[in-house]
Amino acid sequence: MGMKIKPLIFLIFILLSICTQTDVVDAKHNNIGINNQQQQQQQQQQQQQQQSYNSNDDNINVYLIAHSHCDVGWIETYNNYYQENVTHILSNVMPYLIKDQSKRFVWAEIVYFERWWNDQTSMMQATVRQLVQNGQLEFVGGGYAMNDEALTHYQAILNQNTMGHQFLLSTFGVTPVVGWQIDPFGPSTMTAQLFKLMGFKYHVLNRVDDRTKHFYDMETTALFTIEGSGGLITNRSFEFVWYPSPNYDAYESDFSIFAHILDNHYNPPQNCWPNITDPANGYCTGFDFEAGGSGNPTINDTNIAERAEVLVEIIRTRAGYYRHNNLLLPFGNDFRYQDAAIMFDNMDKLIEYINANSSYGVTIQYSTASEYFEAVDSSTTPNEFPINHGQDFYTVTNCVTSYYQQYGTCVEYWSGYYSSMPLLKQSIRQSDSLLRSAEVLFSLGTSVYDARHNIINEYQCYQVLNQHRNISSILTHHDAIPGTARTAVRANYMEMLYQAQNDTLDMLPQVVGQIMADKSVEQGYNASSQLVADLKDGQILVISVTNSLAWSRVEYLPIQAGQQNYAVFDYDQNPVPSQTVQNIASKQWTLYFQVNVAAIGISSYFIVAVGDLTQDTLTHEDKLRISSLLGGPNKPIQDIIISQRSVSEKVTFSMLTIGNNLFNLEFQANKKNNGIMELVGYQDLVQGITLPLSQQLIEYYALDDDVYEFRPYNPIPLAATSPQVYLTEGPLVQQVTIVYSNNASQVYTVFNETTLNSGSGAQESQYFLVENTVAVGWNKEISMRSNTSVNNGRTFYSNNGLEAMKREYGTKFNDTTPWSMIAGNYYPSINMAMIQDSQNELVILNRQSMASSSQAPGSLEVLLIRRDNFTEPATGQDMDDTSTVTFSHRILFGEKSSCELIRTPHSLVHENPLLPMFAQLDESKTIQDYADNHKVFFQPLDAGQQFPANLHLLTLTRQWLDNPSILLRLVNIYEVGQNSKYSQPSTISVSSIFNQFNISQVDETTASGNAIIENQVNLPLVVTLNPIEIKTFIMDFESQKDQDDIHLFKINQ
């Protein structure tokens, strides 16, 4: 993605920090010069300050980084970009590197490079290998894509980097050491943390708050003043030592990465100045030769002296921002070097001219990123740089003069993309959850391979999984999950997602069938719950429920069903209570029943269709008929039960209550909003108190917003049009459905206590579910706001996927405009947002990334949807999102220590739902016949054991086709201080708990598996993890059974 700025940007802002010689003039203002005398004085001061940091050699060493930023979809689709742009870039750059060993080039997006590599001849591949070996071609970042940081789940970041890093390791034998996140819209601590775990030493960032990068002072050349702007220049803190995780800091002495913020942007150097007659449009001249135009003239004998002066001026200015005499100077842009000749040939002339004139005091060389950082390392020590402890860089802003002229503030906060295009965000998270389940099942299925009845085409299954990994990796791109690409590109993303999911769902039945095979194998599995709805009276369906988490789970499984009655039985033919509930909007029925599934195991349940019975009761004849379908040991027919149908009844009460053994939810009609029913109270039955808890849908009006920026104003409750309320009661599930209008509704669901407890600690009765379905009109943005008596002072916590990030409400740079106060205090939430005081806590858990905020004391809200017909200049489109999305929120509320104990396991359970597989029994077979010939439960861990409650099996993946090894990742999910019991080091004997498998040849590796930390770890494998710690292993993993019958990994092509 390019600059993504309005055409009316006042480029003087770039001038203020790049082109004039900037320095601190007094303690109050960061003034800049406007005439030659002032510029000369400031340049002298800057050079004097620079010498205090530099070595005796005050010559500026410029490391010119030739690069091309290639979005994996934005204006064009991924495929179009590859075919029309990327192939030309790589094919045109290589000859220049081959011809001139002084030239360098860096590349980031491996999804493109791998595809290009596979299209090359063996001769070209050998040549490129030599370029990599020579250090002329460096891979930075090295993931499949340059992932978004605010919204992408850490599991997906690990996956996409593993894909890229494994290609680089197997193809070139290299491991990246430099992060290159130059375009994502704000740096996250999580990405820095993961890069450290991947073995990176350095991290290049770019997009941070504009007001920290540049000076704005109307006493000089700016049209307005921003107090405190230009802090990165003033403090020379564009480079710093980043300790991204306070949890790692608690037990590891130096969990840090050296970070570098680009002082301008990733484009070639340029010089800008104001246009007096048109202040909104400045003049620029620079060195983006491929962009062309009068602002980027080619170099010739006539202009080389003048152009060299311009470049040296830029270099001297920017060198003053750093604490040494080395300057990283980007020389690239979006899809540059399609015409490599014009880029290299013109810069070659300037390099030769400047280097030959010692009076400039500047030496320029083509460089890789690592060469620059090695130079910094050799001339400085870490204690010379500022330290960042656990702070990220949200929310990113742009300063645009046209906004200042219109609204009195230059700022546009880029907090809108946290929630833009929510259907895409939701689909990505669902796809990643499915991929993780499939990876676990495939790893287990191929490790318990039974030669007596092999139905797994392992080659085909692997190809499906690997393609799903590829698509998941592409969707981490910083214009994909944010929803900032053009409409056609987003549609292409969705097509790729749906294809990957459908192929995986088509592949999984054979894997589950193989795992559950005994005397015979079930070959009729299907992933579609439509089989339940289509079941006819007397027919039987087996549902094999798979669990991808390493804890046992006891939950109410929701299955799409028909209007008829059902009888549900477990694998021992015991009757299971069940309930069917009708959705008001769709009129479809959902069957709920309790399931108990072992850690990373499978449990089978049987559903018998018994027809549409009068008053949901069974006659003696009905019971005899159902009993005959069991076929097993005689059980008392009076024990046979059928599902209770819960019809949602329209109610006109002014108050109503639903609840379970732990809490009640109180609802009351709001007379100020046409009598809409709203949540108003929470009765904590354990503590015996009632806590204020209200929820509303809030409507913001949009002020020319787009997919990036967020300028809301005038928040009011969403108006209810002819509101309706429906109450659903039953033995398992209770619901209140609130309909605002035809395109907005809320469903509150409370679950009764299960008969057994989940090993995860996340019980069904501990939370209530809120499902918001919202699709309203243009220029409106809708949030769900919860109001409580929690004394949080408008401080709340969002999370980076793994760690809670403290967010304190405040005014930034004295910008008190109403929309800035709202948007500037919105932050990204990957799966959790919460408020707390010393006693109570409110937690909202999401299944997708979205924006969150605390706009008032005791308040917590999440931004659901955004609509606006304003045309965004970079894409030339408005927020044309007409999708209707249902958001699923799991809400925890009450005593703080209780919520802190369970919020993390609840989050993992919420975003990793149980995955059922369905198969219809032959009508001549009974349930006992089926159980005699198939496994009806699968427990891969020792004696039904599970992982400790604070350890999560993050990854169990058969990563390679031609290698039998498993990639294993473990993570301690509790943070330091979160819970007295579980915020501790936790130990697991992997060999013991997986005692049905032979574990051997274990290496501990970096997080992407591309470098060994400890070779041949002692066996049996015992692992200890500190809070939030992630460890990665590669190991051989096969069944302990008779090896004549069990094979590790047999490829069937």
From TrEMBL:
Residues 412-497 form the Glycoside hydrolase family 38 central domain. Its cofactor is Zn(2+). Keywords: Disulfide bond, Glycoprotein, Glycosidase, Hydrolase, Metal-binding, Signal, Zinc. The keyword GTP-binding does not apply. Binds 1 zinc ion per subunit. GO terms for molecular function: alpha-mannosidase activity; carbohydrate binding; metal ion binding. CDD domains: GH38N_AMII_euk (cd00451). GO terms for biological process: mannose metabolic process. Residues 1-27 form the signal peptide. GO terms for cellular component: lysosome. It catalyses: Hydrolysis of terminal, non-reducing alpha-D-mannose residues in alpha-D-mannosides. Pfam families: Alpha-mann_mid (PF09261), Glyco_hydro38C2 (PF17677), Glyco_hydro_38C (PF07748), Glyco_hydro_38N (PF01074). SUPFAM superfamilies: Families 57/38 glycoside transferase middle domain (SSF88688), Galactose mutarotase-like (SSF74650), Glycoside hydrolase/deacetylase (SSF88713). The keyword Disulfide bond applies. Its EC number is 3.2.1.-. Belongs to the glycosyl hydrolase 38 family. This is Alpha-mannosidase. It comes from Cavenderia fasciculata (Slime mold).
